[in-house]
């Protein structure tokens, strides 16, 4: 946990995708990016960073593991404004452009053939039960110049309709769940309340989603980025995933936000 707190503190904040196309009235119906969103973007930025960076004290900040490349397919469950997927899509596009710039053709005297360039054009799936979130994400994608063919938006509960077709095929899953502890009868619906109401211990939706996420992840190299708070009993979640589902779990970044730890 200490390493996760240190990493979150030392790494420069990730830039939020362009959102000036949204107004205050949009946030009446769709979850507005907040501390949990920023932490999620920071985690993606750290893990997919192309180069080492420096913090304010001029200390080198490096990722805990090599960037998980290549990425062919991503999924965000509960997309809201779409900023997490758009951020990841832009980062992957920048990686592709950098690889293209650094892949050089050998000089004529070099008998070795030129290195073949491998272009990866990821497909990004997003889901949300809130129809306003789906519409907002599509607008965010357009405002940030993400090609329409690169994004498939599905209004649904979690990822249920995608399970048969995308089983064991997703490289990256992003999930900022409704984790706030509430009465169970507040869970559900298709409005903005679905973005935060998590039921008992904030776990009702999380516990339903995790088996889906495990079944969707590519067996070799698939990664999921899931936000929790201490009220969700994350250590119990880790034991469940590791002992019952055979999934390796790492507390990646951790930060205090107001009265809770994310």
Provide a descriptive summary of the structure in words.
With 262 residues, the chain is α/β, with parallel strands linked by helices. It has helices at residues 2-10, 35-47, 83-102, 131-143, 163-166, 204-216, 234-244, and strands at 53-54, 60-61, 73-77, 123-128, 151-155, 172-175, 223-226, 256-257, 260-261. Helix 6 (204-216) links the parallel strand 6 (172-175) and strand 7 (223-226). Helix 2 (35-47) runs parallel beside helix 3. The longest helix is centred in the middle third of the chain and has 20 residues, at 83-102. The termini are close together. Residues 51-65 have low confidence and may be disordered.
Chart the SSEs and their pairings.
Blueprint: H1 2-10, H2 35-47, E1 53-54, E2 60-61, E3 73-77, H3 83-102, E4 123-128, H4 131-143, E5 151-155, H5 163-166, E6 172-175, H6 204-216, E7 223-226, H7 234-244, E8 256-257, E9 260-261
Helix pairs in contact: 2-3
Can I get a quick summary?
This protein is an alpha/beta fold and 262 residues long. It has helices at 2-10, 35-47, 83-102, 131-143, 163-166, 204-216, 234-244, and strands at residues 53-54, 60-61, 73-77, 123-128, 151-155, 172-175, 223-226, 256-257, 260-261. The chain has a five-stranded parallel β-sheet with strand order 5-4-3-6-7, covered by helices on one side.
